[in-house]
Amino acid sequence: MKSASYEERLHAPLAWWLIGLAFVVAVWWIFVLATPQWLAWLAAAIALTLVAGLVGHYGAARVAVADGQLRAGRAHIPLELCGAVEVLDPDLTRRAGGAEADARAYLLLRPYIATAVRVTINDAHDPVPYWLLSSRRPERLAAAVRAGRPGPE
After folding, report:
1. pTM of the model as a whole
2. Exposed/middle/buried for residue 48 (C-beta within 10 Å: 0-12, 13-18, 19+)
């Protein structure tokens, strides 16, 4: 088996963090107008914790190819079970994750990333026909999966 390595975190964009910050300010403002100041600051701290936790967790998803495995979020599969790899442009990604999606497929999609990679799964015991993975660098991800599979190219 050839060695392949790739890693990408699907970080949430700055705009999501700014919207979250605006939400925290709005919570603080609403509370400061109607309650004691200490309660407003407590509500803002709780809102900030929730925003940071939610946006941070959602944006912490990782796609990686290493040690003979394709990893996407918490899922992983040996590269020898990966078949055809297809790089999808924004239009194909939208269609593949929407109207043309197979309900059995494994999807790790983020709405703020326009491109993706579809990896066919060649395992008779696995009902998942393919993985559809968001990627900012789909060509590099596809190349790493192809390079890491055993056998001829």
Report:
1. 0.83
2. middle
- What is the rounded CA–CA span in Å between residue 120 and residue 142? 12
110 and 71 within one domain = yes
Calpha distance 110→95 (Å, rounded): 14
pLDDT tens sequence across 73-120:
999 999 999 999 999 999 999 999 998 999 999 999 999 999 999 999
How many structural domains comprise the chain?
A: 2
Structural domain includes residue 83: yes
Query: In terms of residue numbers, what domain contains 26?
Result: 8-58
Contacts for 133 with CB less than 8 Å, ≥ 6 apart: 63, 72, 108, 109, 116, 117, 118, 119, 141
CB neighbour burial string for 91-103, b if at least 16 within 10 angstroms, e if fewer: eebbebbeeeeee
E strands of 59-151, at which residues? 62-66, 69-72, 75-78, 82-88, 106-108, 116-121, 130-134
Rounded Cα–Cα distance for residues 94 and 99 (Å): 8
